[in-house]
Amino acid sequence: MISTKEVQAVAKEAKIGLTKVEEEKIQQDISQWLQQIHQPLETIEIPKEVESMVSPCFLTNVLRKDEVIPFVRRDQLLKNVPQTQKGYFYVPRVL
Amino acid sequence: MVNQYEVVIGLEVHAELKTKSKIYCSCSTQFGGEPNTQCCPTCMGFPGTFPVLNEKVVEYALRAGLAMNCSIARQTKQDRKNYFYPDLPKGYQISQYDIPLCYEGYVEIPVDEGNKKIGIQQIHIEEDAGKLIHTEEGTFIDYNRSGVPLIEIVSKPDLSSPEEAKRYLETLRNILLYIGVSDCKMNEGSLRCDINLSVRKKGDPLYGERTEIKNMNSFSYALKAMEYEASRQIQALEKGEKIQRETRRWDEKNQCTFPMRKKEEAQDYRYFPEPDIPLICISKEQIQRIQKSLPELPHEKRQRWITDYHITPEEADVLIGYQKTGLFFEETIRHYSNAVIIANWILGEGFRFLTEEQKEQGEFPFTPIQFAELLQLVEEEIISNHIGKQVFEIMYKTGKSPSMIVEENQWKQISDTNQLQEIIDEVLQKNQKSVNDYITGKKVALKALMGQVMKVTKGKANPQKANKILKERLENKKRMDKNAKPMI
Amino acid sequence: MYRKTVLQLKGLLENKKISSVELMKAYLQRIKQVDEQIQAYITLQEEEILLQSAQEADQRRSQGKAGILEGIPMAVSDNICTQGMKTTGASFMLNSFVPPYQATVVEKYLEEGAILVGKLDMDEFGIHSPYSIAKVRNPWNLQMTLGSSGGGSSAAVAAEEIPFALGVDGGGDLRQPAHFCGCFALKPTYGRVSRYGLISVAPSFEQIGSVTKTVEDMDLLMGLLTGKDSKDPTTHSQPWVPLEKDLAISEMKIALPHFSDLFPCRPSIQKHIHKVASQLETLGARVEEVELPMLSYVPSMYQILTSAEASSNLARIDGIRYGHRAERYDDLSDLYQKTRQEGFGLGVKEKILFGTYVLSASHYETYYQKALKLRTLLYQETNQIFQSYHMILTPVIPFPVWNREEKKSVQDYYWKDMYTAIANLTGFPALSIPTRDRIEGVPIGFQLIGQAGKEHQLLQVAYTYEQQEGISKRKEKSW
Fold first, then answer.
1. Mean pLDDT in each 10-residue stretch from start to end of chain B (488 residues)?
2. For the domain bounded by A1-45, which CATH number is listed?
3. Number of C-alpha atoms within 13 angstroms, CB side, residue A50?
4. Is B82's CB within 8 Å of C232's CB?
């Protein structure tokens, strides 16, 4: 179960505003999800030596050479948002 | 009151690695470019881009770890530190959480009683964020710095005073400079530190509540901030107040620390392993190779200079601190053996003319060989010390060789006894009053007459010899005068 | 002409039976004819430009400079970045985003002369939920679902608006719609195909695959995409082994996981799979039942891990450098919140919040860390099966096709991806294969999961099945 308060707290962490209706729906849905996953997670005994598998990539040391390759279409990087000034991106003053 | 308390300080130092390209993309890391001209979709967090780790970053981090006596993780990973801030384009920083690349090391700092070991908890690699410029109209963001590689060096809380902390910072800085992984320019932000400071009553086994002072970018500000904060905490405790765990900033204008806007709870960064970056494995061979390639470290060099060259610890500290000037110093020793004299000249005359930048870069406008030549000329008394200084100034301004300067100005010292005698006799003749003053016992007359000798010879008279001859002549005159007095 | 396969078109072009311009005109005509109802395309390139490109393709061919796919039209799912062409991820957040960079997969095909016709519809950011149903329809039955988020790729190929399409598969997003559309879809071994340019939401799960009408097309197209890419560090350099058409499948041992009561695989689906099993046995393969206990844990670990990764990967979408940005806000925090509130649909919001929840300090161990270990156990168990079997046969979805308006239960949503997600959790390749059977007029297929790097074995079985069942020669068309 997840409470509405918890939904609000998590929404704040994730920087997503929610309407009351959305809050309710999310609270219901996530509660159901938690209920679904609760049972299998609780019942399984995982031996201590089992490691975590973060990704199916088994490569190691994938490194690149230290060389400068400027991005060619630099001017287009600032074009995807209107709020740029004198080459800077812009947000309201950070308190 | 203050003596009842002891200060406990731990420092987190961030050093920008001086690789050519960024940690996860091939943009340039050069300082000072026009805003948003050294970035690409990857370091700006555009969708569909992936980080690719720069091999030099791993190498430089290992150098730092080994130079600081750390153990090296044979297998490590990167982790995501998730939070929202406009200078963090992906909404997370790729860093290392629980398996840092280097761990459990130490550095030694000089203290009154000798050397003290300061524990290094870990050194890990991470990326820098962009730069924010706050103005009245709003906050402007430049992503040039986003993705510049950093190592974070976390010390154990082994520092017992602000002064020790400052020495620790200087030691760290020197090591990083000497092993060539960072240019450590605090004013450019390539070296920053966060301070964790708490106080406790002497003998108390528990640590007091600590505060964090963030983003110090000057050694002197850091020192002042620590001194202020220690004192503030002690005063608060004496008043019976509790110390709040909070983040503070140093206010240079008002010379105090002030709390940043407090958050309700501690920040939860939701760390989890970075799936986009494959595991990093460090081999024994790599560790050995890097260990072998480390140059003589600053504290080793400093000790050797004091022991072998007999310069003072203070002189050694300065020459170590300006690494490249130190190199100039060492190079000069290869051509002229009296290191003490070299050190005196560099720190005296040399530093008089050099700018701070030139001292850092060891930018003497002449070569160590030319410098050695000058010192040789003085030692052999071909020119006087005084002239030597004039020659030095001209060398500094023109880069010409000392012999050439001496030739052009005809500054060779007059050391020939006969020549000097002639000159001195002439001077004595022309300065009867001073002679008489001397005979009547006014010692200051000697100085005046020496002055005249120097004036006439345009400073070229060998001072010691001239002085000797002058004195002899004057004493003779005195005796003659005495003898000439009639006996009644 | 649009009914042809890629190989057939290639042949016709090479033999100068048709020109690229004629071919492009045929597809443009077809799209005009059907897409109003199918709605597979989010963005369509301008006709002039497409015809111009087709002309250039014809020119190159006449100069003897034709690439392998010269003049062949292609389309990609809208979560694959196309330089200069709007890429929205089917989200309001990116509704005017034009990337200044190209996905590697697109670059590879363009280099071989393919012509990018447009971007295909999908669920917002590849997150399938009851709140974000894409507009695209199933050509076999417009009322029926496409099953998962990558619908546009399959619908376009099934409705023959494009000879093949690329899409992203993070848990079945490509394979599920493909099987409901009577097409083949491959999720390759993790790391075979570069993800550079893929708007990544669940990075340790996603791979780009293609949707095709035939196995031979799949073989050609996936072979061209294979390869290590310096821009995606998770790619490896294992070469693509081409299909050998004459190879018999009598050596193939196929494992069929036991249908337990622990998960709701409908009897009709079980029956269907057993039918497929005996069909495969008739063709010479050996099918044996095995135990795969970790199967019942697949949905929970899939749910937890994909949500966690999504919550982090979508944090960069904040309106500051690109995308939608709220117009009215009080301060920085408000800017973030309003932008993301306005820009994301409810399904995406939910996924992000669940991910944030399972990663938070107080829940990390209970959910996220546990799921990582479950993933290891699933991998070990599946790998163990591969010691004795070449591949694993499963349904694509444990229940039959449903009405797109139908509100599926939370239970069903939970179990829906149980079979397809195995491949994304473990990294093994998986192929969705159509059969001749229909439910409510909509095709149904089956899935084969293969050993790492051994896609050719999957294609081998699929090809043999395809030839035997006459899948590609069937006369009835979806549209």
1. 83 96 97 91 96 98 97 97 96 97 95 90 97 90 96 96 94 94 89 93 89 86 93 91 88 87 71 97 97 93 92 90 90 91 89 84 86 88 82 86 84 82 86 82 83 84 85 82 66
2. 1.10.20
3. 19
4. no
